[in-house]
Write a structure and sequence with these properties.
This protein has one domain. It is built from 5 helices and 6 strands, in the order E-E-E-H-E-H-E-H-H-E-H. A hairpin with a 2-residue loop joins strand 2 and strand 3.
């Protein structure tokens, strides 16, 4: 576990690509949560230093680094649910899932469904790699130079597995409740 005051982003391994012989594309696609807003909305103010300026917000995207307070980790299944409920009850916001690629060597033993914490420096580099503003070579070099910039979060992995299991069960129940309304295929 890293320093308490360091910003890190939880990512969930979604897919692991392994290249034969250690050459090629050996990376893992990792999902992360964000808060999205679709504007426009004219009830926003921008504060920066001495500046206070009313603005019209068009779009907003914020990466989620921790659960709704209190707590620094998503170490209980209910914290995922609370995140969705708290954000989406605001009306103009929703929780979205996005993804980035990270080298398997950085994650060490990546496995689907495992949660890792990524330091903000490497997360920002992954965004640059994804957008094309950072080359693959430079991204991989930065990851090699910062091997402790990612770590497995066992507590968050366990909580995520329980939460997703509950989501699947709720989906099944919801489907069965609405099955009589489904169109018949012939």
């Amino acid at each position: 576990m890293k320093k308490d005051n360091a910003v890190s982003i939880p990512v969930i391994v979604d897919d692991v690509k392994r290249a034969e012989g250690g050459r090629g594309f050996s990376m893992s696609r990792c999902a992360y949560f964000s808060i999205e807003f679709e504007g426009p909305s004219d009830d926003w103010d921008l504060f920066a230093g001495d500046l206070e300026l009313p603005v019209v917000m068009l779009d907003l995207s914020a990466v989620i680094s921790r659960p709704v307070p209190p707590g620094k980790l998503f170490d209980e299944p209910g914290k995922f649910e609370e995140l969705y409920e708290s954000v989406e009850s605001q009306g103009q916001f929703f929780v979205d899932r996005n993804s980035l690629w990270f080298p398997n060597s950085l994650l060490r033993e990546p496995a689907r469904g495992h949660v890792y914490r990524i330091e903000i420096k490497l997360f920002t580099a992954a965004l640059g790699y994804d957008s094309g503003s950072l080359s693959r070579e430079d991204f991989l070099l930065l990851c090699r130079e910062n091997p402790k910039g990612a770590w497995h979060s066992e507590a968050e992995t366990a909580a995520f597995h329980k939460w997703t299991g509950h989501q699947v069960e709720m989906s099944k129940l919801n489907y069965m409740d609405k099955k009589p309304l489904a169109m018949k295929f012939q």
